[in-house]
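Record AraC family transcriptional regulator, 326 aa.
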Amino acid sequence: MKTIKHSYGADLDWVAPFAKQLEGKVNGNFIVVPDTLFKGSRYVLDCGDGIVAYYVDVTNNRDVNLIQKNISNDFIGIYYNLSEGEVKYSSSNFKHNVGRWQYNLLVIDSSLETNYFIKAGSKSYVLCIFIKKSMMASYAQKNNITLRDIDKITDPSKNTIIRFDRMSSESFHLIDDLRKLKVGGPVFDLNLTGTVHLLLSNFFKKMSSVRIIIQTVNESDLANIIAIQMFLINTIEDHFPTIKLMAHNANMSESKFKDLFKKITGKTPNTFFIENKLLKAKELLEGKQLTITQVSDRLNFTNNSYFASKFKEHFGIAPKIFVKQL
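=>
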């Protein structure tokens, strides 16, 4: 396994040293790497306003351990990850799969060290957005978004920004459409910049709509919260477990558990559970093997009417109409 130690940033100072670590070089906006390690495109673009985009669409030809330890803690990284294959995010206390079918949206403070294990044969497709914390307030203001407690949120001594989530359907389609374009040149740069700003706008609007928990997160607590998220995903066909049970399993008080869960996912445990249950319902309906009633029963919704109302509330369309359009 090849180990690569590197850093990122919301400027371009990290690009040349990173290319060297990859045994490659910088050619314009491209990081050119030998095919023996990765085959595909690595592209970096300064999008202005303290924002840098790093676009990765490669096949991994070797087992790789990417260790990211940033020189500066003045930015956050937002990672939209549609990779396929074995890609794991790891810390000292836990290791979890990330990518298209797992956690595919990671928001990670630059003060945190990240560790990725990528298996040979995996296909990495990731759009990384790095934005300076000092620019977050002005960016939100420019886009008419009100962010409460922004000074505390971006103060490293008071808050560590961390979130593991699944991206919205809108975000998925934006990134999927970007992949259809030839990488490089004015047209791609324009589309990449536009995609980055749309994703950031959506992200900040989401931040403004929920109460941000001002609290640092230690590795042990983060590991326990992520373990509960995976527990909820793995029991998605069952009824919602009690907060008391989950808090006990996470070795936390109920109040601390609820606060940290919302900080890391942006959702309450119940909302996280029901939204993933609805995504599972959508997948089952798309498979055309089960009726609406069978899906509702399988996922333990109270009744068909409740299932239909929640489905329409989340996806904007009734299950019957959705099935007819398949």
